Structures are given as structure tokens and as C-alpha cells.
Amino acid sequence: MGMNVGYFLIKSASKYPQKTLLKFEEGSVSYMTFNERVNQLSHALISLGLLKGDKIATLFLNCQEMCESYFAITKSGCVLVPLNARLNDRELADLINHSDAKTLIFDTQFSNFIRKMKDNIPNIKHFIEAKGKSNDENLAYESLLEKQPKDEPRVKITEEDDFAIMYTAGTTGKPKGCLLSHRNYIWGALNGIMDMDIRPEDVSLVVFPMFHTAGLASFFVRVAIGATLYLMKSADVKRMLEIIDQEKITSLALVPTLFNALLQFPDLEKYDRSSVRSFTSATAIFPIELKKQTKKLFPNVEACEIYGMSEESGLGTRLLPKDVFRKIACVGQAFTHHEVRVVNEKGQEVKPGEVGEIIFRGPVVMKGYYKNPEATEEAIRDGWLYSGDIAKVDDEGYIYIVDRKKDLIISGGLNIYPREIEEILYSHPDISEAAVIGVTDPKWGETVKAIVVPKQGKDLKPEEVIDFCATKLSSYKKPTSVDIVDSLPKTASGKIQKFPLREKYGKAVVY
Q1: For residue 366, which phi and psi values (nearest 5 degrees)?
Q2: pLDDT at 155
Q3: I want to staple 446 with a disulfide (CB 3.0 to 4.6 A). Which of 2, 427, 438, 480 is the partner?
Q4: Residue 11 lies in a domain
Q5: 89 membership: H or E segment, kind and range
């Protein structure tokens, strides 16, 4: 076996054989036992006739079998295709067919769902059901393992071999499949180990769904370092607090919406949170006021913020604890093992204070979009990955996300960045969540619409929100209309989706 992602597990299982790798509601599993089960599943996949390079799709919520499947697929030389368990059957069938997957491994809770899909996914030759029994339709996961050896499979896998197809979350439209190599994730893990305070003695609470880039990157980094992970299938706030208290969780990574939900939980003081020494916020804007309150929620922590995307293995820039409160609305600087620049339309680096697009270069950048050469050519130019995110830099070289390129609002010829307005909205004492989009306006082309969710028990009026913004923003930036809603559409990782809002309220111009 060459150097590949599977080596993370081999090394840690050798170093910490009896140490707990995973904890979950049903129990726990050690590094050695986990690795042996992974090897058995890997041998089973090979025995079914699957060859190096074949695609295997998975459909799970966070659980032991999900984690085992990821490493087993990797060690067999096949290509992992994690499916978003919150998509509907049509969306899932589209991704399965697009990926050319030949096998589907899934949790028994999705068995009825899979049964309805079968006619629409004709390329799937093997259906492997975790926690289920073998029948005419499916192979039982545990039965497959029982017949197989526990030694390492003898498949030659190199850094350049395909590791996974990660489908983008689809916040701006139809998902694309990011084809990633073992090299991409090896260097991504090295970035995390080198630049973040991750320790072998950590007990990390995993709430991010591991079919998402953020969850997957977090999982592999911690296995590589030899830490313990406590898996949650869903983000139940009360249960999160119970686990933090009972298991003495030392680190956690959440989206800002979950930090917000924790802060609003009525019985916080019942739970000991002092064991948490580090938390990471990722995937979305982390407003400064929320950040300050979260620091009070976990008084002993050092906070870190991560900015990244599936196309570069999930870890792009990091804002370290020393800068979290010194640099406001900032995503920090590049991880050690790749380059990040902010450039103008001519590809020239912007000066401090100027606005440009974030681009990446280095061993973490994907091979391309699977079966989509046009999108690949547009995204990767002269070896640089163009992110589509608009940013600026300060005189110390720190990067500040201004907004998504596709989210830009142009009103009367003036550029308006929704993120700036959202920062203001999140500072309102009665607003829990907010999203800003551009909507059609006959005079200006576009104007600003805010869609906000009030905090529980608060009676919020649209005119109050507009007046609040008017005191803090230039006149042309303030919302001209506000909708008060109970919730906002989100991806599985908790990131607010704007394209459903644009579909509902109308986007003026496609730029």
C-alpha cells in the first residue's frame, strides 16, 4: 500500500490499538477493532468484484458503519461518493447516476426510501444494508464482514489515485461533483494537524454531517492524530449539552446557527461546559456579537474560524485564536500547505482595501468537476482554483470575505455586498437569523430585501428592521423590504441557502 488516506487509520490503530476511536449512543469502538472491521468490509467489496477506481455511494447519518465504509472504500481502491441524506429521492438518484456508482451502502433507516428509488438507479449492482438482514434485494453489512479476513487488503493506492467525489452543497444551484485525490486529503489533513490545535487526547463532538466536506475533513484529521470522536446523528441542542457535560468534550466544530441555538437554550446552567477547550466555527458568517456571547458560553475555550470549500478539501484559510477578536469579519490567512491570493479581474493581486476574488493553488485543489470539463475549465485557470468568493485583504495580509460573487447586488450601478448587511442584522438584539438578496426594482434594477427570523418570543416589525439598518448603513445599502419568517432554508451543514429565496422572491438580473 502506498501513501494514501487509509494510512491515517493504519498508523493510529498501530499506535493506539485499545484507545476509543468512536463513541455514539449505542456504545463505542476501539482503533484496533475499527480497523479490523474496515479491513473485513474492504475485502468484502473486493470479493464482490469491485475494482480499483469503481465508485461506491454511501447514504448514512453519522454512525459507526458510515465511518467504516469510508475507510473500507478507500482501502479497496474504490472511490467514495458520500450522499447527502437530506436530499429527496429524485435528487439522490441524479447524483448516484451522475457519479457512475456501482454499489450503494446505506443504513437500514433508508431501506424503504432506497426501495422506491431502485428503478431509477439501474447502474447499482450491489445494495449493502447496514443493520439489516440479507434478502433478495440487499446484502447484509454484518454478514459480509463475517466471512472476511482482518488483515490489510493488498491494493496498491497512490497519492494521485481518485479518493472521493464530493458533491457541492448546492447553495447556489445544482450540485457539482468535486473529484478529489488521496493527495488532496492527505495535505488537507496535514494542514489541519499543523495549523490547528488538535491533540490525541481530544474528545471531539461531531455534529457536522460527515457526508459534508466540513464533517469529512474533521473526521480524517482526527483519525490521523489519534483523537476520540463522539458522533451525533442530528443537532439536538439538549443532547449536545448532555454529551458535553457527561463525556467531558474538549473540542467541537459547529455552524454559527447552532452556536446561536445553544445560546438560546433555556437551561444552560444545568450543564457543565468547562471541559471544552476549543471550538471551531465553519461554513457560514459568524457575527461578532454571536462570537462574544459564545465565548461566554464556553469560558475556557480558544476559538478558531475556518473558511473552505469542497473544491480544495475543505480547509482554505484559518483565523487563529489570537486573531478571533482582533480581526472582525475576517477568515484569516491560508493554511500552511497551499497558497491563497485575492485578485482582480486581470488576475493581479489587489491592494489592501480593494475587492477581488479568492483563488487557491496547491496540493489540496481538486482534480476537477467530475464529467464537467466546462465547469472545470472555468474554475481552474493556470493552476489556480477560482472560488467565486469576493474578498479584500488588510495591510497584514488577512482576508475578509465580502460575499459570494453570485450574491452581489447591483443597485443603480453600485455594488452592494449582502454579507455586510447581514452582519448589521445579526447585531439586532431580536434577530436570530438573517439573509439578504437582491430583488427586481424598475428604477434601480435591484434593491435589497432582508429575510429575517426573530428570536423566540420577540415581535419584530419590518419597519423596525429597516430603521435599524438605516442608522448603521449608507442609504443605498439599507433594505427596502423585509420579510419576517419562522425559518430559513439551509443545507445539511446548516448553511443558509439563498437560491430558494431568490426563486421565491425573484432575482432581478443574472450577472
Answers
A1: -55, 165
A2: 95
A3: 438
A4: no
A5: helix 89-99
HEC string for 291-324: HHHHHHHCCCCEEEEEECCHHHCCCCEEECHHHC
**How many CA atoms lie within 13 Å of 219's alpha carbon, on the beta-carbon side?**
27
Judge if 255 and 398 occupy the same domain: yes
User: Are residue 400 and residue 472 in the same domain, yes or no?
Assistant: no
Q: Is 180 exposed, middle or buried (0-12, 13-18, 19+ CB in 10 A)?
A: buried
Please name which of 440, 435, 415 lies closest in space to residue 507, comparing C-alpha atoms.
440
Q: Tell me the three cell numbers of residue 12.
A: 493510529
User: 275-300, pLDDT tens digit by residue?
Assistant: 999 999 887 667 787 888 888 899 99
3-class secondary structure, 452: strand
For residues 384-401, b (16+ Cβ closer than 10 Å) or e, as one string?
Answer: bbbbbbbbbbeeeebbbb
d(CA 356, CA 408): 12
d(C-alpha 364, C-alpha 359), whole Å: 12
Q: Round the CA-based radius of gyration of the chain to a whole number and report it.
A: 23
Tell me which amino acid residue 367 is: K
Q: Which three cell numbers stand for residue 256?
A: 454559527
| H/E segment holding residue 219 | helix 213-225
Residue type at 193 in one-letter notation: I
Determine the 3-state secondary structure of 204 from DSSP. Answer: strand
Q: Are residues 306 and 381 in the same domain?
A: yes
76/293 Cα distance (integer angstroms): 46
pTM for the model stands at 0.84
Residue 507, pLDDT > 70, answer: no
Q: Which helix (H) or strand (E) holds 240?
A: helix 237-247
One domain for residues 359 and 374: yes
Q: Is 14 inside a domain boundary?
A: no
CB 293 within 8 A of CB 432: no
Residue 433 CA, chain-centre distance (Å), reads 19
Across 42-109, where does the E strand assignment appear? 55-59, 79-82, 101-107
Same domain for 210 and 324: yes
- Tell me the residue type at 134: S
pLDDT in tens, 15-72: 999 999 999 999 999 999 999 999 999 999 999 999 999 999 999 999 999 999 999 9
Q: Helix, strand, or coil here: 290?
A: helix
> Domain with 267 in it: what CATH number?
3.40.50.12780
Supply the CATH number for residue 106's domain: 3.40.50.980
303 and 379 fall within a common domain: yes
Q: How far is 327 from 322, CA to CA, in rounded Å?
A: 9
Closest among 219, 217, 387 to 314, alpha carbons compared: 217
Calpha distance 350→344 (Å, rounded)? 6
Three cell numbers, residue 456:
423566540
Total domain count, the chain: 3
Q: Is the sign of the CA dihedral 157, 159, 160, 165 positive or negative? A: positive
CA distance 66 to 130: 9
Coil/strand/helix, residue 161? coil
Measured from the Cβ of residue 382, the count of other Cβ atoms closer than 10 Å reads: 7
pLDDT tens, position by position, 65-74: 999 999 999 9
Give residue 407's pLDDT. Answer: 82
